[in-house]
Design brief:
Layout: E1 3-7, E2 13-15, E3 21-23, H1 28-40, E4 44-49, H2 69-81, H3 83-87, E5 90-91, E6 102-105, H4 110-113, H5 119-131, E7 135-138, E8 161-162, H6 167-170, H7 183-189, E9 193-194, E10 205-208, E11 211-214, H8 220-232
Length: about 230
């Protein structure tokens, strides 16, 4: 059995450049699908958030942007089935990532608000990367790497190959045109070798050693399946 740590945003809003706050949280599919697949594989999952605050579901992720009605209904039911775990997360600062075989960061715009500047998360990511043990970040979750800096100010993920939501995909959200920064730009500025799929909103998974990343919500299932397959090998 593999013990998995889900590091989930605790943000409820995303502050835009005009000062407005767009309601946000975690993206339903990005949490539910990997959680379901890992659970079906017999793995044990622990949820942790900054401050131990119960994470907020971004309701947009269960609207038309979340796929077909049947799929959205299935995801909602799954999230309801794990509501006790989501309502009582561990406090991120008190979690030892070394206790887990996999650390997994689901996305949503929330990480751009809190995990991108969260020092506890940044230290956890640095330890995890240094350890060479499996780490996965999905869609907007790579925003969390911005909090992982070396003493000289460089990013600990510089030179690593990763993906995350592309600028083209982000701009499909009307409110994203008000964003202070876009994830693809920030990853490149941090020194990441950014990689994206040919077609927006299609599954795209990047693997760099034990570092896994998925580009968009559509990559949630593919990312989890790749990780499970690699653990079985």
């Amino acid at each position: 059995m593999v013990d998995v740590l889900f590091v989930v945003t605790a943000a409820t809003g995303w502050t835009l450049k005009d000062g407005s706050v767009h309601p946000t949280g975690y993206w339903a599919e990005e949490l539910a699908e990997p959680h379901r697949l890992f659970t079906e594989a017999g793995w044990s999952i622990t949820v942790a958030t900054p401050g131990g605050v119960p994470p907020t579901l971004d309701e947009l992720s269960l609207g038309v942007a979340g796929g077909l009605p049947k799929k959205r209904a299935e995801i909602r039911r799954y999230l309801e089935s794990i509501s006790d775990d989501l309502d009582h997360p561990r406090t991120l600062a008190e979690v030892d990532e070394a206790d887990f075989g996999l650390v997994f960061y689901p996305g949503g715009h929330g990480p751009m608000e809190d995990l991108a500047v969260d020092e506890d998360s940044g230290r956890l990511l640095q330890r995890r990367l240094d350890s060479g043990r499996p780490l996965a970040l999905l869609c907007h979750a790579p925003a969390a790497i911005l909090a992982a800096a070396n003493p000289d100010g460089t990013n600990v993920f510089a030179g690593r190959t990763m993906t995350g939501l592309s600028n083209a995909e982000e701009r499909l959200n009307p409110f994203a045109w008000k964003a202070k920064w876009l994830l693809q730009d920030a990853m490149i500025e941090a020194g990441v070798d950014y990689d994206k799929g040919m077609i927006p909103l299609c599954p795209h998974v990047v693997v760099d050693g034990a570092l896994y990343s998925g580009q968009n919500p559509q990559s949630a299932e593919a990312l989890a399946e790749r990780i499970i397959a690699d653990f079985r090998d």
